[in-house]
Amino acid sequence: MQIYRRGNSGTWQVSFTAPNGKRVRVSSGTADKRQAQEYADNLKAETWRIHKLGERPRRSWKEAVVRFINETSHKRTHGDDKAKLRWLDRYFGQLMLDEISADVISQLRGDLLSGKGPKAGKSHGNTNKYLALIRSLLRKAEREWEWLERAPIVKLTTTPHRSESFRWLTQSDAQSVLGAMEAEGLFHTAEMMRFTLATGLRESNVTGLTWNRVDLSRRAAWVDASASKSGRALSVPLNDDALVVLRKRRFEHPTHVFSFHGRPIQRANTRAWKQVLKNLGMRPQPGWHPENFRWHDLRHTWASWHVMAGTPLEVLQRLGGWASLDMVLRYAHLAPGHIAPYANNISSRKSAQNWHKNEQEASVV
pLDDT higher for 67 or 228? Predict the structure, then answer.
């Protein structure tokens, strides 16, 4: 049996021949040589028991995490998964896989929904990200690795549907904010805001936009799949407002579209942006305070303006790069006009007209 390091990696690898003649190569998941040797010894002993005695060895949550991380390194969310699994160690770190019960998962779900998770707030969406990750790992342990006889059922929480759960600015409010920013000398922030309101791009896609992803002659820009939330490349048609911003910034920085004092901008949602909103006393909707208006709400504003202008929801989905139409339906209530013509189909007046028309056609036949 051999333990070794691969390249410059600090993690020890394990290699040995199993009783059935197969070569076993696996990461120990640790940079500590003593722990790696202990892991290798235990693994070899378990492999012998499986082959000679037909035993199914008990596996720990930590072993499953190591294997899961190794096998899912290609995922776009790999870094986020590792962070979540580190946090989950407080619940499952001392447990064997067969000790993870529905009660343990229920306790975790309750804690996340009560705001005890790594991100403050009672978020159903954030809770479901953790639950979905646990479910994926346990299913692998059962169906692919055969480490579990049967994985516990992990149910996601039901996310309340609230069509009014986003904030947006009217056209006049947006102009007030832009004017206040320029008055404060925040021209670079105002231009990012104009570009966001013209394209609907997320903050990271705006600040990370580079000139090699912009084609002014074709009036288009694009976001790589690696930078897109949906995991798919996004083509961004540029309207007149977006082109005005880009042409003004054309020679400001050699690589990045948005910069300040010669450096690419990292964040758009700055203290200065919040202070402008506070000074204006902006209240996009009753009950919301200006301090709570986020940069991401500009994307909601862009989508709201599109719907109110008559853009079909299916087209808006493609423009915004949403993976499903469900994400777009929350804006539908802003413009019932696209379904209004059908409301009259069952009015008594129209029904009588249709009945009379059908009667005439029948008599001709």
Answer: 67
State how far the Cα of 189 lies from the Cα of 183, in Å rounded to an integer: 12
Active site residues: 202, 229, 296, 299, 322, 331
Strand order across the beta sheet in which 23-27 lies? 2-5, 12-17, 23-27
Contacting residues for 163 by C-beta, under 8 A, at least 6 apart: 329, 330, 331, 332, 333
State mean pLDDT over 248-275. Answer: 88
Kindly report the number of other CB atoms within 10 A of residue 101's CB atom: 11
Other Cβ atoms less than 10 A from the Cβ of 250: the count is 11
State the residue for tokens 């149910």.
155
CA distance 220 to 76: 25
Per-residue pLDDT, 320: 93
Strands 220-223 and 23-27: unpaired
**What's the length of the chain?**
365
- The 3-state DSSP class for residue 169 equals coil
The pLDDT of 158-165, averaged and rounded, is: 54
State both tokens at 7: 């390249």
Residue-wise pLDDT tens digits, 65-106: 999 998 888 887 888 899 999 999 999 999 999 999 999 999
Is residue 192 within 8 Å of residue 265, measured between CB atoms? Answer: yes
Q: Percent of the chain scored above 90 by pLDDT?
A: 39
Q: How far is CA 198 from CA 241, 270, 275, 350, in A?
A: 6, 20, 23, 41
How much is the pTM?
A: 0.59
Which residues lie across from 236 on neighbouring strands? 221
